[in-house]
Write a structure and sequence with these properties.
The complex is a heterodimer of chains A (139) and B (144).
Chain A lengths: L1 H19 L4 H8 L4 E2 L2 H21 L20 H17 L3 H7 L5 H25 L1
Chain B lengths: L1 E2 L6 H22 L5 H9 L6 H21 L11 H17 L4 H10 L3 H24 L3
The chains are: A mainly alpha (139), B mainly alpha (144).
């Protein structure tokens, strides 16, 4: 059951990105371009998502098990550190260059745009570099 | 600032956002997991045995979404004008940055803010600010 719910959740997420316009990199860049002809649509994507998710996520935060009996795995960490801030700034620069973040990158992978394949390969390399450096750090 | 009313799509963006909210709610209520795409990708890539099949299935759902959409309607417009060298730089920065920062638009921006996590609120402010600044620099300073 948890496998089916995972697949359905991913599918709904992907359809949501498509409907919202988040899977169109040009629209994302138009949202990030405050000084140009600004398209505020994507602020509503985040607003709409948070409005729906706020009650379920806060309910889940207080539970030990999910409705299907899986262990609740919600991050507990609260400290701010340089990795969080530096990593997020680096991510934001990359997002601003191409208008693509990880969710839309996966959604667009099978839509036959060569640019997405280039982007996703580079993104996976970036993630791989992180995991290699991270494993050395903890050794 | 001038608002581009012609391309402003309040209803579809709000509706799409609501679907995203529904998806992250389903994933946390049923699977007990946070739907953060960069985190899921990172852990599936490392063949992290914990919950690997559920995480991979969530990603499979994302992957097949345009195919399912395509069975009922034409896909919405997808425009990518970025050249390949910039795409490679962007990909590397997004890949490494989201892993160091422990999340992206979905994990921090939607899930984290919904559960009022101070870390996610700070992360979201950081990546949004960096995104605005980068587009300002490339379009209005460098003129790319």
């Amino acid at each position: 059951m948890t496998k089916l719910s995972a697949l359905i959740a991913g599918l709904i997420f992907g359809l949501g990105l498509l409907l919202a316009g988040m899977a169109n990199p040009a629209k994302v860049l138009a949202f990030l371009d405050l000084a140009g002809a600004w398209d505020p649509s994507l602020a509503l994507v985040m607003g709409g998502a948070i409005a729906v998710a706020v009650i379920p996520l806060n309910w889940a935060r207080k539970k030990k098990l999910s409705l299907l009996g899986a262990r609740m795995q919600i991050p507990k960490k609260r400290e701010l550190d340089i990795r969080l801030i530096g990593g997020s700034l680096v991510f934001g620069v990359g997002w601003g260059v191409a208008g693509i973040c990880p969710g839309p990158a996966v959604v667009l992978l099978l839509t036959a745009h060569w640019q997405i394949i280039v982007f996703v390969l580079a993104m996976l390399v970036g993630m791989y570099v992180f995991s290699v450096l991270e494993s050395r750090r903890t050794c | 600032m001038s608002i581009d009313w012609v391309n402003f799509t309040p209803w579809s963006s709000l509706g799409g956002g609501a679907l995203i909210g529904l998806a992250v709610s389903l994933f946390v209520l049923a699977n007990g997991r946070i739907a953060g795409i960069s985190g899921l990708l990172g852990s599936v890539m490392q063949f992290d045995s914990e919950g690997c099949s559920e995480k991979a299935l969530f990603l499979l759902g994302l992957l097949i979404a345009p195919l399912c959409w395509g069975m009922f309607a034409a896909l919405p417009e997808i425009e990518i004008e970025t050249e390949w060298p910039a795409l490679i730089i962007a990909g590397l920065l997004v890949g490494a940055g989201t892993r160091y920062g422990s999340g992206c638009t979905s994990g921090h921006g939607v899930c984290g803010i919904s559960r009022l996590s101070p870390r996610s609120i700070v992360a979201t402010v950081c990546f949004m600010t960096a995104g605005f600044a980068t587009v300002y620099a490339t379009r209005h300073v460098l003129g790319i």
